[in-house]
DNA sequence: GTAAATTGTATTGTGTACAATATAATGGAG
DNA sequence: CTCCATTATATTGTACACAATACAATTTAC
């Protein structure tokens, strides 16, 4: 009885630790991203676009979805808000009209310069060492791949 | 240049690993919690209420907020939905009318029995060992406390 | 004892998440 | 060539998150 009860204790749940840590980190990002007028998911989208832009690759909405594990119901309005602010362009492919290609504008690309300071500023002062961050990140990536490998036929 | 660029690479960001892993775990919970007709945050609220109920303690909205790191804007509508389904009661304190005490109903308490199987069913088949889960959970808790200790004057 | 600050919850508005559904375009199978 | 499954995105609806604000009750300062 005691054992099963313990399993339901909030503090014993990995998921809650993940849930709380995720929101705590996002909360740390918020004031930094506010300087760029970006939300956290918008920032992630920009990261993907900046990377692709440097590699000379184009990015479709579905590519963003696969990379960030988000569906169109999340991405479409988010991208429209970024497009309204002239940070990205959304162009429907003329060959295959089902496809919408997303690219950063000059303004969007320029924002990358300011974004560069963010990772450095984020964790400084928290007393979390570099190697600890790397270890945790890799463990999370490993767990993520295990979670995604099992169960459902494929990622969304 | 290369170094700073790497810092902005999506795969090098702890925050994204956390963000993706959190949503992957929540997605794993979803079908299990659907059997109870609970969302994941609703489940967390019930966990807190079940714990307090066993300890004979009362829980105020602000207690839930502190424990789960959620504010009233999230909790109030969530608790109203649980109350609509007769899983919890929301009673305004007659002495201090600012206080609302939340408690599970008989129906809410009965649900605990079904919830017990969930932690066990969740990760079975993923190939993630028990000790690995514990280690990751403790590391996340440690990081969380460091994140919460610094910066802002206090937690929300 | 009363004004001011604090506390506890609620409300409003914006922005994700995601299931379910819709819609349009493409690529075969026949 | 045409029906049909598939693909890519968009739309709708529900439910968080959280900032900002509101407001009533309580506590503190004086």
TrEMBL record, chains A, B:
<dbReference type="Pfam" id="PF22381">
    <property type="entry name" value="Staph_reg_Sar_Rot"/>
</dbReference>
<feature type="domain" description="HTH marR-type">
    <location>
        <begin position="11"/>
        <end position="149"/>
    </location>
</feature>
<protein>
    <submittedName>
        <fullName>MarR family transcriptional regulator</fullName>
    </submittedName>
</protein>
<dbReference type="InterPro" id="IPR036388">
    <property type="entry name" value="WH-like_DNA-bd_sf"/>
</dbReference>
<keyword id="KW-0963">Cytoplasm</keyword>
<dbReference type="InterPro" id="IPR039422">
    <property type="entry name" value="MarR/SlyA-like"/>
</dbReference>
<dbReference type="InterPro" id="IPR055166">
    <property type="entry name" value="Transc_reg_Sar_Rot_HTH"/>
</dbReference>
<dbReference type="InterPro" id="IPR000835">
    <property type="entry name" value="HTH_MarR-typ"/>
</dbReference>
<dbReference type="InterPro" id="IPR036390">
    <property type="entry name" value="WH_DNA-bd_sf"/>
</dbReference>
<keyword id="KW-0805">Transcription regulation</keyword>
<keyword id="KW-0804">Transcription</keyword>
<keyword id="KW-0238">DNA-binding</keyword>
